[in-house]
Amino acid sequence: MRFLSTRGESPALGFSDAVATGLAPDGGLFLPATLPRFSRSELEAWAPLPYPELCVRFLSRFATDIPEDVLRGLVTKSYATFAHPEIAPLVQLDEHRFVLELFHGPTLAFKDFALQLLGNLYELQCRLRHEKINVLGATSGDTGSAAIHGLLGKPGTAIFILYPEGRTSPLQERQMACTGAANVHALAITGTFDDAQAIVKTLFGDTAFRTGHRLSAVNSINLARVLAQCVYYLSAWLRLPPGIRDTAEFVVPTGNFGNVLAGWMLQRMGVPIARFRVATNRNDILHRLFTTGEYRVGDVVPSLAPSMDIQVASNFERFLYYSVGEDPARVREVMRTFRETGSFSFGSALQASFASSRCTDAEILTLIQDVQRRWGYVADPHTACGFKDLSADRPSVVLATASPAKFPETMREALGFEPTHPSLEALKARPLVVHHLPASVDAVRRYVEQHAV
Length: 453
Ligand SMILES: *Cc1c(COP(=O)(O)O)cnc(C)c1O
What we know:
- By secondary structure, this protein is α/β, with parallel strands linked by helices.
- It has helices at 15-21, 40-45, 51-59, 68-79, 111-129, 142-151, 170-177, 193-205, 207-212, 223-239, 242-245, 258-268, 285-292, 316-323, 328-341, 361-375, 381-385, 408-415, 422-428, 441-451; strands at 2-5, 13-14, 30-32, 90-94, 97-101, 133-138, 157-164, 184-190, 215-216, 249-253, 275-280, 294-296, 343-345, 355-358, 396-400, 435-438.
- It binds pyridoxal-5'-phosphate.
């Protein structure tokens, strides 16, 4: 299978090259040239498969340049790091309410589904092509730790993650800085997340530096991330009681649109998911889009669901591509208008695509309490956003994107106690290995030069 850029001005690539490239050279995002179509009988035959095998069957339709047994090895290794035997267990709260738990991976958030696999894909690439890879990124929290745990100790790779000193949660910092792996570099920058991100951008803009060190980004737009995320929607759909499958709404706490996009693409491949609901926190660009038809950036404000504190939903471009009839010229035009004016109006056409909701911090606390009172279930602040405005007459599956143990302060404020998790407790006993650097391009450049593989 070949993969095209949403902007139509880059050559089509095979799966492995598209994954290694990340962002297409024309600035667009890679998508399959044509989406496969799964029939109901084919889907139903997959129902008994364990999660990793389901993943192999699905991905093998896209990763046609990787032999199936090699792919099976990668996938098995990727999900062996998960602490739950079902990988993505579907928990039933009552007759019509389900929670899809996506936090049993090594960093206790859903990003592990994609980044464990991406780490193993990178390792394969390095081995086959006798290449090395240096991953550089900035994080305000979950992405950095998930990326680090995807590459932990992998030969031929090093990972450098910049984060604003003192502005990630102490547990998130420990997840990045207590791994003990020599190829992991947690770089605490004296500055904000925007400073960290600006440094990374500048270094990627330096072509000689980027190519000289084979720099790669692990950001939310990698094709492999979207495809890996399709699998848990498929798994959940197959595990729902048959009477509910075709009517249930999937509710997705989202910021970057990455998570819900995967579900929506799976729907286009023939999996009859009835509807999606996009759940945002107070950073509500997507909620405003699906209620007013206008895509307009606002200021990012900190919230109790920090991993959704985003205003520009980078994965939205993939959705846009399909919405404008797979027309790259139209995508370029919309993206240009958006870049120049900070907004774009879709009119009323989009409103039918997704239901949506927005959740303030006060509502997050109340929802955590309501969910616990009603079902005895402890939901993290991101997952709690998914319980806003649940439709009364329709079954729903709320995606639980993080373990509540990652957010002890907010959970204490809502429920009066701090949930714990053994893997986080173990981290507290390990030494923190942090490299402190000023917010300067040169300091980071020098550090990478000295430690790159
Ligand atoms: C990253 C993250 C999200 C948002 O994911 P998107 O890719 O923006 O949809 C939601 N919840 C948690 C816990 C996360 O780490």
